Inverse folding.
């Protein structure tokens, strides 16, 4: 018996109907990004494993449990990118983009990879659309990035979202808070899950990423980072909130929000939607003022967001139109000679930018008309043996069902339609 090979678990195919919705989201994104002054950057899906260990953090769930990393044929440690920011920062430094543009506004669209348990809206190959604004410490950079994210979600058809923001403070604040939190949790270490016991020792902030209910309960009464940030960070956070209010972006402050990546400093945010589970954000991001420094560059403030396209589609599938190809003209051809003629007409029309089609197989009139209907062709041109003899074809308007005769050689003059 023949055996059919199936795709890998958590690596979904995006089939034509849905791919049209993806196109719609991507087109919407590209239009908005251009309007906001963001330029596209494309980085490879494979990078050195060390890039992600150094940027996202060795103790994070992403690096510890979810990253696809392996030895290649040259025995190099490489990984499929689990997120987009680290590769962009790598590329930014490698190609000295800071020397070319003091304020770099970049966007990306592409697949990311994490080996999680597949479930609705959580695939092992998933797609992100994101931006990175590198080079500004201003509150307007934070607010613009958040605004762009919200506008894109809305323009893609996702309404009634909830935006949550928080402030993690600067590196110094984070360090100081780690001491505070470690001490505060000391007596309750026994009640934490196994992972969190390790996190308590190595990277205590990561306890905030725990999905375990008992750990969450303990954190509920633990000190909050936003209460331990320095006056400068406090002032910046207030200015970000003010800027958001000035452009009528609704938000709530969630002191438990930290995002599961080590590189975040200052403002962090995420967007949730009732159609997704409580743990699944449709978009998220934040400031990472220390990352470029950590990766070997000069200290450069930056912030960005990423939208999960799979989740956006899951939450708003019926609101997202499919980018169908329009068919201006469908050629219904009866008989071999008509097909020959039709094939040439098709080539001429396409040369003039007309979207047109014919069946390559000989089919009955009825079956060709049915196909034209299914493709939602605007007009149909019917050529049979008689029409060929008389140099006349029938042009049918599929919307108002009107028909008229047209000289076959005039078909390429579309103004005569
Ligand atoms: Zn600070
Ligand atoms: Zn835990």
């Amino acid at each position: 018996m023949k055996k059919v090979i199936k795709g890998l678990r958590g690596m979904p195919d995006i089939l034509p109907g849905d791919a049209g919705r993806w196109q719609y989201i991507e087109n919407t994104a590209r239009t908005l990004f251009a309007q906001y002054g963001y330029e596209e950057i494309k980085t490879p899906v494979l990078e050195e494993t060390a890039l992600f260990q150094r940027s996202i953090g060795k103790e994070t769930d992403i690096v510890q449990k979810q990253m696809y990393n392996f030895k290649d044929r040259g025995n190099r440690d490489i990984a499929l990118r689990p997120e987009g920011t680290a590769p962009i920062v790598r590329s930014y430094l490698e190609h000295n983009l800071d020397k070319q543009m003091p304020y770099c506004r970049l966007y990306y669209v592409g697949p990311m990879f994490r080996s999680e348990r597949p479930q609705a809206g959580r695939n092992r190959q998933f797609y992100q659309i994101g931006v990175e604004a590198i080079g500004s410490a201003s509150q307007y950079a934070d607010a613009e990035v958040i605004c762009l994210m919200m506008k894109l979600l809305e323009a893609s058809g996702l309404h009634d979202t909830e935006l949550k923001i928080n402030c993690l403070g600067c590196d110094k604040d984070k360090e100081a808070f780690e001491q505070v939190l470690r001490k505060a949790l000391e007596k309750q270490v026994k009640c934490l899950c196994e992972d969190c016991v390790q996190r308590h020792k190595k990277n205590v902030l990561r306890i905030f990423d725990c999905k375990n209910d008992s750990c969450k309960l303990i954190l509920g009464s633990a000190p909050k980072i936003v209460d331990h940030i320095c006056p400068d960070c406090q002032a910046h956070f207030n200015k970000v909130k003010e800027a958001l209010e000035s452009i009528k972006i609704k938000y709530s402050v969630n002191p438990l929000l930290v995002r599961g990546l080590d590189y975040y400093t200052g403002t962090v945010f995420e967007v949730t939607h009732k159609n997704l589970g409580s743990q699944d954000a449709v978009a998220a991001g934040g400031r990472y003022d220390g990352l470029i420094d950590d990766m070997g560059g000069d200290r450069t403030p930056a912030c960005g967001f990423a939208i999960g396209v799979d989740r956006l589609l899951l939450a708003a599938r019926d609101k997202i139109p499919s980018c169908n190809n329009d068919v201006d003209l469908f050629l219904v051809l009866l008989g071999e000679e008509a097909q020959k003629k039709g094939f040439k007409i098709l080539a001429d029309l396409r040369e003039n930018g007309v979207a047109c089609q014919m069946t390559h197989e000989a089919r009955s009139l009825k079956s060709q008309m049915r196909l034209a209907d299914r493709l939602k062709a605007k007009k149909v041109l019917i050529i049979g043996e008689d029409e060929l003899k008389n140099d006349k074809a029938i042009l049918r308007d599929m919307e108002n069902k009107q028909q008229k005769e047209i000289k076959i050689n005039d078909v390429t003059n579309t103004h005569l339609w």
